[in-house]
Amino acid sequence: MSNRGGKRENAGRPAGQGKYGESTVTMRIPESQTATIKSFLEAYQRKRERAEGDTSVTEVEVGEFFIPEINDQPTLLPLYATKVAAGFPSPADDHVEKRLDVSEFLIDYAASTFFVTIMGDSMIDVGLLPGDKVVVDRSKTPNIGDIVLAVVDREFTIKTLDHGANKMPRLLPANSTGAYKPIYIRPDTQFEIFGVVTGSFRRFK
User: Fold this and answer.
1) What pTM does this model have?
2) Domain Peptidase S24/S26A/S26B/S26C spans what residues (predicted)?
3) Which of 42, 81, 99, 180 sits CB 3.0–4.6 Å from 122 for a disulfide?
């Protein structure tokens, strides 16, 4: 019998010597999310490099990326038509206006949507707090005034899209303390709007 064919023992790159310094696995992801996953991995690698001594970038505002998982059977919860001052309204009061599927409310186009965790506090004045999950839709056309997920010189940031007097794009923070300055996009800046932020959500406990 031939000894040819099949995987050779100890073949391939030794574990821990790849780009990420650890073993890798094969996984299947939606084709529409390929660019998102690649960009996240690049950002993850740069974050690790900074942690090992490169402090050239101090403002890290984006954490984990998540792809939404849409169930075949939506979870429909009661949406009350009246405002609730305190306590919990009784369904017997006939105040239920309709039933709402949270995924349907947050997501317009599942194939182009993903979630990102907020890490910094540069957007707290618009209600985006550290730990919040923001909903990002890559199919939306960004307009002036939109909150966007942008890549600036290979770093992710979430800011409000604007433009200056010269009509060049700029990204505005929303933090009245003055701790963050606008990011001006110059001709030599590597810049891409990765998606439009369409919503956010958080847990309290």
Assistant:
1) 0.63
2) 78-197
3) 180
Question: From residue 115, how far is each of 26, 136, 171 by CA, in Å?
Answer: 22, 6, 20
- As beta bridge partners, residue 201 has 133
Domain shared by 113 and 101, yes or no: no
Nearest residue to 115 (alpha-carbon basis) of 84, 138, 85, 96:
138
Which residue's entry shows tokens 């300055």?
A: 181
Residue 107 Cα distances to 29, 80, 158, 183, angstroms: 19, 21, 19, 28
- Which positions are annotated as active-site residues? 122, 159
> What's the Cα-to-Cα distance from 56 to each of 20, 60, 121, rounded to whole Å?
20, 11, 19
Cα–Cα dist 137/149, whole Å: 9
Over residues 110-164, the pLDDT tens digits come to 888 999 999 889 999 999 999 999 999 999 999 999 999 999 988 899 999 999 8
What SS3 class is residue 198?
A: strand
* Residues β-bridged to residue 152: 155, 191
Residue closest to 46 by CA, chosen among 128, 121, 156, 124: 156
- Determine the 3-state secondary structure of 205 from DSSP: coil
Based on the fold, state whether residues 197 and 113 are members of the same structural domain.
Answer: yes
> Which two structure tokens, joined as six digits, stand for 68?
């939404």
Name the nearest CA neighbour of 34 among 94, 111, 108.
Answer: 111
- Total domain count for the chain? 2
Q: What is the DSSP letter of 154?
A: T
Structure tokens at 142: 């960004």
52-56, 81-85, 187-191, 194-198 — most confident range: 194-198
